Amino acid sequence: MTAVSDFIKDEVKRSVLLLLISGVSLVVSFFWGKEMPVDPAFVAIVLCGIPILWDATTGLLLRHDIKADVLVAIAIIAALILNEWFAAGEVALIMEIGGFLEDFSAAKANKGIEALQKMSPKVGRIVDGEDVREVPVEQIGVGQTVRVLPGESIPVDGRVVSGETSVDQSVITGESMPVDKRAGDQVFSGTINQMGAFDMVVEKDSENSSFQRLVGMVSSVDAEKTRMVRVADKWATWLVAIVMVLALSTYLLTKDIYRAVTVCIVFCPCAFILATPTAVVSAIGNLARRGILVKDGDSLERMSQVDTVAFDKTGTITEGRPKVMEIHPDSRDFITMVASAESSSEHPLAKAFMEYSRSKDIVYSSPEAFRMTVGRGIETNVSGKSVMIGSAGMLKEANVSVPDDVSERSQYLYSEGCTVVFATVNGVYSGYIVFSDSIRGSSESMVTELRDMGVGTMLLTGDNARAAVHIASQAGITDVRAECTPETKMSFIADFQENGRKVCMIGDGVNDAPALKKAWVGIAMGGTGSDIAADAADMVLVKDGIDMLPHTMRLSKKMMSKVRFNIVFSMSWNFIAVALSMAAVLTPVTGALVHNVGSVAVVVNSALLLMYGKKMKNTESRKDSQN
């Protein structure tokens, strides 16, 4: 019983069940209805027709609103007057199928704000002399001192007064690498303290913190996108007038009420109503097979109008995690020594190096007397040798000189947005390792394809200008906006759109959520991205298939051309059917069937979108197999 109860409560499942029951009743009605005491089409009329009649009546009388429901209601009533139960039920069922597809395509899972609120820091530790007490974040005031322990979320905005640490602030800035913090540096609420404990002085209370501003921005732009108005509803007033004039003219000319009623039935705009939702659902199915989830049909219509694509950098254009890009000297002895030293470290760069060493089948030993200086590096003993691995500043403090050519190389690498770590053995320079966030393999070809389509591109990132320009040049993007906050990302997009541009934003982080909401279309990376970004976006690339973006844009344009064709075809078909009805060629039942043929033709034409792009995909597969 519980399973049945849950099924009935599920709106989508309930709608499908009612449509199936109605469809079966019409099949039975068509073949055996005349032989039965009560025509089974009665079931379809009750389940599908009564809601339509109610909506049409209340809309017309209470809101003076003429929509497509009124046209369908006229057709149903006209069929019932002549006891044509099958025709009435058939019209009602097709209308409900169209409404179901439309609601299905427009269903939007928008849980971003709720998820953001759950991520908001809830408590903080106030330091009062020797006393440290945990309080709700709302009770933390400006000027107070707060202590943050390793692994904790920073509760409010402030500035470090004592201690050193590394902070993952990708949630706010999108930076791929942890940022070292020491006395005097600013920290933001919602970011994660990764290493050491530190004390900070509060500069903003919780209501004005960076994270709460992020929540506010997502909320403020959430209501700006409205559903696409159904085409049939736009023209409903004129269509009602036309059908009434045609039906009345038919009756006055022929004195045949059956012809007039048949005109009402065949002119019912079911195919017209199906024109948009069937195309949208087929396009959504096409993209779903390619790992792209579309949350609402409106976003596909908007996608067809996009002329500019804005990319986040980390996790979107790039892989989103540090990788070893260069080692000098590139020898097994050097790699083994560094791996042994770093094997006890939890730093993200150390983890990246250990992943690299495992790919080289390096066998390393455990270090001795391991000591880490937050934001600087590590000191340890490996096989009886004193090993230090860290930043240039750490080597300078230890009075270790770096060869001039290495220093010049490291400065060049810094300018390219890389992170360089140096190693010493027994107080003597030994080598260096270069880390960088690598570009996705498909990014450059994807940007080139967009450019060939006449679509502009730009990079919006919270990373520093050097790293941003370096990655952008690799991807072929010339318009770069670096060191962006969530506010500035959203501001850039707003400025573009106020100047008439249609911007598609692609991002992966929580900090991208406001921009994803503000953009004409928002697309989130589903693999490396956060749940918050996915909830804020209109589409999600489940497998981070950024190379599918050009296909998505082409498909959206194809979908809109299908919609336009469907509309022209359906109206032409209706007028042909009206002419045949006025000439008494069609009866109410045959009129309903002809009317149904038009609806089926629209559905079949839309279903062809499921195959769109298959030839191109097969061609690419053959090329890959040949290579």
Provide a descriptive summary of the structure in words.
This protein is α+β, with helices and mostly antiparallel strands and 627 residues long. It contains 26 helices and 22 strands. The strands form 4 sheets. The chain has a 7-stranded mixed β-sheet with strand order 10-22-21-20-11-18-19, with helices on both faces. Strand 13 (368-373) and strand 14 form a beta hairpin. Helix 3 packs across helix 4, helix 3 (41-62) crosses helix 5 and helix 11 (257-267) packs antiparallel against helix 24. The radius of gyration is 32 Å and the shape is elongated. The model is unreliable at 1-9, 105-113, 218-229 and 618-627 (pLDDT under 50).
Question: What is the SS-derived class?
Answer: alpha+beta
Q: What is the C-alpha radius of gyration, as a whole number of Å?
A: 32 Å
Our estimate of the beta-strand percent is 15-25%
The helix count comes to 26
Name the strands of the widest sheet in spatial order.
Answer: 10-22-21-20-11-18-19
Q: Which of globular, elongated, flat, extended, rod-shaped describes the shape?
A: elongated
Distance between the termini: 57 Å
What value does the average pLDDT take? 80
Runs in which pLDDT lies below 50 for 5 or more consecutive residues are 1-9, 105-113, 218-229, 618-627
The largest β sheet comes out as: 7 strands, mixed
Q: Fraction of residues in helices?
A: 40-55%
Care to count the β-strands?
22
